[in-house]
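Protein Entry — a single chain follows
Fields — amino acid sequence, structure tokens
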Amino acid sequence: MPELPEVECVVRALSNCLPNLKITDVEFLYDRMLQQNMGRVEFVERLQGREIRKIKRRGKYILIYFSGGLILEVHLRMTGRFLFTPQPAPAARYTGAVFYFEGGSALHFQDMRKFGTFRLWEKNTLTQSPAYKLGPDPLSGEFSFPFFTRLLERKKKVRIKPLLLNQQNLAGLGNIYADESLYRARIHPTRTAGSLTTVEKKRLFKAINTVLQESIARGGTTFSDFRDLQGEVGHFQEQLKVYRREKQKCLHCSTPIARTVIVGRGTYYCPSCQPLPPVTS
């Protein structure tokens, strides 16, 4: 599933090509992608003739703002992706929707597993969107060190990896970047939030921001499905230090990277660089 950096890359790319374009038509192929009591006919009618004003991201949600105060909320889920075509182009396999614009350009939404979702909101109802029921975005001003400290204090007994993955705590942080952040902060993923020292909290806070920014700069991480608007893969997978590197040597100490499962997610760490504290009697 695309995580925060991948969605941010998509939003930045959409922001470069969509603003001021006017929708002439929408071809919607998978009704189950519509997550409201709205048929495809009504969905299309509400969008036709509207101009795109701006594109924003909240966690892993994409918010496309239209003229007249209408907002389209999109979640890519596991395999959803957008493809922008400056000229008319036939819909490829797995295309779930095509947004057509004045002048002939189009935005194709492709989704092999068909799990992607679309919702329409009015400006005064947007806060009812699932995107607004999440914790703060790690790249926003809301995510400060004092906030992070308070969060860890409230969740003292929660293991740090599940805490980071819980979208009610932080919006958009996923499995890849939780592992990479914990590795850089030298914190074992099964430790509880209450066991972290102030120095460790500072290291983790910094690592989360650094890892996300580095991934965005490299176009995100692609293992199988993620592509940008031109169909290009991301390159941050080339910089990963622990994720999916089981039994390979740690790049810092040469200890083999270990793998375990935490809350159903494969978790990678270095036993030497991220040791569990000794048990005190």
Summary: Residues 198-217 form the longest helix (20 residues). Residues 125 and 172 are 22 Å apart (CA to CA). Strands lie at 23-28, 52-58, 61-66, 70-75, 80-85, 95-101, 106-111, 117-122, 258-262, 265-269. The mean pLDDT is 92.
